[in-house]
Amino acid sequence: MPEPTPEGDLIELRLPCQARYIAVARLAVSGIAARIGLTLDDVEDLKVAVSEACTNVIDHAFGSCAPDQCMTLRCWAREGELRVEVIDAGCGFEATEPPADRPDSPQPRGLGLFLIRELMDEVQVFSSAGAGTTVRMVKRAGEEQEPQ
Amino acid sequence: MRVERQEAEGWLTVVAVTGELDAYTAPELRTALQEAMDGGAQFLVADLTAVEYIDSVGLGILVAAAKRAAAAGGALSVASDASSVTKVFQISGTHELLGLQPTLPESREFLASRRQEHAGTNS
């Protein structure tokens, strides 16, 4: 991903890939968001989106490939805008954009990504087989989401 | 998180949850709902009025329970009026399937009328 470094303060948190630490990711993100002028509604949206991304890492990132059983939460915070990346070094997948259609019966990965896209202002998923997956999302203060 | 099961009335089971429902805590809710239905419960309230957080994991468990209850001739109703919780139901389009009501008494009323409809259909 060769591109300019995002603006803002960089905050990184490395977490074991265990469900009990998802709440820690939520706490970290809501603490940061509350300090840069995001609204309570924005914070609630971020909590769900970050939890969904972490849950997907725990459920899907590490199959039969050699596991680095950690995920990294990388945030760039500036007034009115939080950019969050949830990064794993797991198996990855070949498709650049996994399906995220509104499901009739929830499929964990599909529904999680669907919610992330609904709740965030920008979402990008980068993945390649063997090289892990990064979910990048941006939330801006008080901005209504356009359907993506 | 805490999950408590109450036999509210003979025909109605209430599973009350307190705290946050995510991938770590939600399996406890799945177990409580499954055990209630294994024991013959047909009409169930998932009382989430004391839940401040839910994501797709909790949602998936509630949808599965609602479908199982419906298949057994019953119904499930979720009680919640927290915007952080109801928003997840609204944007996933599951609020109707989950019989979403703002309070426990309204969920009970909702299920009572569903039960009467079922009784009417079966007679």
Taken together, the total number of domains of chain A comes to: 1
Structural class of chain A: alpha+beta
Sheet-strand content of chain B, in percent, reads 25-35%
Give me the number of helical elements of chain B. 4
Percentage of residues assigned to helices of chain A? 25-40%
What is the largest interface, and how many residues per chain? A-B, 25 and 20 residues
How would you describe the oligomerization state of the chains in this entry?
A: heterodimer
Strand segment tally of chain B: 4
Helix content of chain B: 40-55%
The CATH topology of chain A comes to: Heat Shock Protein 90
Order of helices and strands of chain A: EHHEEHEE
Number of domains of chain B: 1
List unreliable stretches of 5+ residues of chain A. 99-108
CATH architecture of chain B: 2-Layer Sandwich
Query: In the CATH hierarchy, what is the superfamily of chain B?
Result: STAS domain
CATH superfamily membership of chain A? Histidine kinase-like ATPase, C-terminal domain
Please state the average pLDDT score of chain A: 85
* Rg of chain A, alpha carbons: 14 Å
Topology order of chain B in helix (H) and strand (E) letters: EEHEHEHH
